[in-house]
Amino acid sequence: MRLTHTVLSNSSNVYHVQYVEEFRKDSGPKLQKFLEERATKEVNWLSDWWASVAYLEFRNPVVIHVSPGIVLPKQNYTDTAGQLRYAAKLVAGVLDYKIMVDEQTLEVEYMGKNPLCMTQFYKILSACRTPGLKKDMWECFPPDEPNPPTHVTVIHNNTFFSLEAYGKNHKPLSVDQIYNQLQKVVEMSKNSSTPVGILTSENRNTWAKAYNHLVKDKTNQASIQNIKRSIFVLCLDELLPGDMSDERSVAAKMMLHGGGSQLNTGNRWFDKTIQFVVGRNGICGLSYEHTTAEGPPVVSLMDHVAEFCKTEHDEGLPAENVKPVEKLEFNLDNKSLEAIDQAKKDLDKQVKDLDLTVAKFTDYGKNFPKSVKLSPDSYIQTAFQLAFYRLYNEPCATYETASLRKYQHGRTDTIRSCSIESLAFCKGMCDTNVSQEQKRELLKKAVNSHKNYVNEAINGQGIDRHLLGLKLAAIKNGMNVPDLHMDQTYSTSCHFKLSTSQVPSKEEAVLVFGPVVPNGYGLCYNPQESQIIFGVSAFNCSPETESNKMANSVRQSLIDMKNLMAGSVQAKL
């Protein structure tokens, strides 16, 4: 069991040997046996547990805390007609992607020579989460079930509609036909409705109580079931904040939380696995509920749709027997209206607390670290370590997502980017007595140490999910949670002040999410060949953190690291 990459920033940076030894000799082997027995009965011993513990049992709101937002490049439309025309193409693009899902012809992805599990790709459309008082439920309505979903949920001015996406003989509607349907949606919702969708932004227990009351009414029950069974949600936003000076960051907020109760948060259904957002003035992107998939399957869909929207398509004859759009009704009594009012207040507190910056680093991208034979991801992660160290004069526990899709139904493990080697590099960079050559060597060691950890994690040798499994095995078998898991040092090592993820895309897009601890940062990045786009989040309630300050520190670290390594290249010449 490897614990060497956990570096603590306080005086207790030595593990409690007693707890480790007790765990190794006593409870550890017993719990390991339980896991091995579970592995003989399950396709993947962890995947169901992970979905429950990380998502369905998590009681915080999915907004900011769970569901990421993705910002697409700004589109060039400026009026309602342009907005609806783009939205119509987007819907057609999703339906085009869905053909590959329905026929199971998506191209299998590989990591080197190893095929990757594609299960997640088949669980993002026609899927939805449902709130529960202690644990939520997630459902997917596959294309091979009787009467599979054939409609899209459209939300405009907080009003919900069901748009049938296919005509006679299951022929998809053409772009023009979808455009006409969207025009009717706008005509039927000129005035804003009561924002029932804002309930989905609530604490999960609070939302579950409101949900259970809502569905006592048969009309509400039918409308919610229609939303749950739809292929995806399309949000047509009308509003933008007054200050648009940082347009990319504003767009990120629209995707992540909708901007608040006075803007577009009521124009959402955050339980839906996929909801595309097409806003005013070319702002667009999507939000996705995280229970069943990481970023890559969602980005695959997004990239396909973005490319589809750029090209013209011969759609042949239009579909026949097009059904009219159907407005979904809600009967809201005083209790539901009170729940909606409270949800507005709770959501606005979250929105006010979130500090979010999207930045584009254009000095270089993946091209430079590759040119000096360093792993781009490990290089960028080392820049994050330096950026944090320069701000706080200490390292911190850092989470980076490691994909386990090499294994059937695999999800993620943790790459602990903060290491002994990264700390040595950070200290060296800040020490004027350390020579440039020594700093270069420290950088190379830090980058290569991270690269080695990545290889271990993606090959099932990470420590975090294994330790979680051992803890869950104790709970499931009525045993005490081992002292090792209860120790403050272990808790500190899992207090991830930097929660990071690389989500590459062909587009100039960036994924954003909230921090996982109150005094931490969420940091997601899209490394492209000649630029790096990244989103940084923090909470305003923490006096320690500021997203723009962190973004600037990352930018400066990337500049300094290139100057350092470029000196090495010049010396060789």
Fill in the keyword field for this structure:
573 residues; alpha+beta; 8-stranded mixed beta sheet; 17 helices; 18 strands; globular; transport
Please explain how this structure is put together.
Its main location: endoplasmic reticulum. GO terms for molecular function: carnitine O-acetyltransferase activity; carnitine O-octanoyltransferase activity. It comes from Mytilus edulis (Blue mussel). Keywords: Acetylation, Acyltransferase, Endoplasmic reticulum, Fatty acid metabolism, Lipid metabolism, Membrane, Mitochondrion, Mitochondrion inner membrane, Peroxisome, Transferase, Transport. Helix content is 43%, strand content 15%. The protein contains 17 helices and 18 strands. With 573 residues, the chain is an alpha+beta fold. Helix 13 packs across helix 17. Strand 4 and strand 5 form a beta hairpin.
The Rg value, from CA coordinates, equals 24 Å
Strand content: 15-25%
- Tally of DSSP β-strands: 18
Tell me the strand order in the biggest sheet.
Answer: 11-7-6-8-9-10-1-16
What general form does the structure show?
globular
Instruction: Work out the helicity level.
Output: 40-55%
End-to-end Cα distance: 44 Å
Mean pLDDT: 94
The stretches of 5 or more residues where confidence is low (pLDDT under 50) are 1-13
Count of helical segments?
Answer: 17
Q: Main β-sheet, in a few words?
A: 8 strands, mixed
| Secondary-structure-derived class | alpha+beta
Enzyme class: transferase
Subunit structure: Monomer.
Membrane topology: Peripheral membrane protein
Active site: 290 (proton acceptor)
